[in-house]
Design goal:
The protein is an alpha/beta fold and about 220 residues long. The protein has one domain: Cobalamin biosynthesis CobH/CbiC, precorrin-8X methylmutase (Rossmann fold), CATH 3.40.50.10230. It has 11 helices and 6 strands. The protein has a 6-stranded mixed sheet, sandwiched between helices. Strand 4, helix 9 and strand 5 form a beta-alpha-beta unit. Helix 4 crosses helix 11 and helix 8 crosses helix 9. About 35% of the residues are buried.
């Protein structure tokens, strides 16, 4: 019979991260300091240690992401599931807002009229946001492909891309396209990913920025 640990709700997450740290050490996997909490939160969300090897970060990605959050950047997702998973209260404390345009009628009509996916149409709509935008894509490779195309064709480009769609069709190729650009990114190579992974990456950075500012006595000040 497996050993049962009786923990209070607030203790469970702490214990989970302790277990993750222990198992990473057992697997002889070391993580870069600035990437550590993102990778661990993704493993915490998925119970999948493969992410310790497949999550890819562009140069300086975490610092750029944190600075964007601090300066009030918005986050656009490709699913309402990812949107629901992002800690919007913490994001709002820095002046940011989270969006998902997938279910909006104008996006559906535009996609039907032009014979493109709603994910692609929703990425186009996001370019109208008049501030830096972090894109968190956990489901639709067509969203990543559209971001790649638009950043090449126009002066507009995303401030940051989280590219972690899950699946089999065009998923791996779409992720590789993003890693060919000059756009800062966090991408998971291979087929794995999902809306929960996209939200976990966002939250890992949001919590880091919140905790750092709390420690410095900055959060909540004018």
């Amino acid at each position: 019979m497996k050993h049962i640990e009786y923990l209070l709700p607030e203790e469970i997450e702490k214990r989970s991260f302790e277990i993750i740290s222990e198992e990473l050490k057992q697997r002889q996997i070391s993580l870069l300091t600035e990437e550590e909490m993102i990778v661990k939160r993704v493993i915490h969300t998925s119970a999948d240690f493969d992410y310790a090897k497949t999550l890819c970060f562009s140069e300086g990605a975490v610092g750029i992401f944190k600075k964007l959050v601090q300066n009030g950047a918005d986050i656009v997702t490709d699913t309402n599931m990812a949107l629901s998973g992002i800690n919007k209260k913490t994001l709002a404390s820095f002046g940011g807002q989270a969006h998902c345009f997938m279910a909006q009628e104008d996006v559906a009509l535009d996609a039907r009229h032009r014979n493109i996916t709603r994910a692609a149409a929703s990425m186009e709509k996001a370019t109208k946001i008049d501030k830096p935008v972090i894109f968190a894509v956990g489901n639709a490779p067509t969203a990543l492909i559209k971001l790649y195309e638009m950043s090449g064709e126009q002066k507009w480009k995303p401030a940051f891309i989280i590219g972690v769609p899950v699946g089999f069709v065009n998923v791996e190729a779409a992720k590789e396209l993003i890693m060919e650009t000059q756009i800062p990114y966090i991408v998971n190579r291979g087929r794995k990913g999902g809306s929960n992974i996209a939200a976990a990456i966002c939250n890992a950075v949001l919590y880091q920025v919140r905790d750092e500012q709390t420690a410095n006595g900055q959060l909540g000040k004018e």
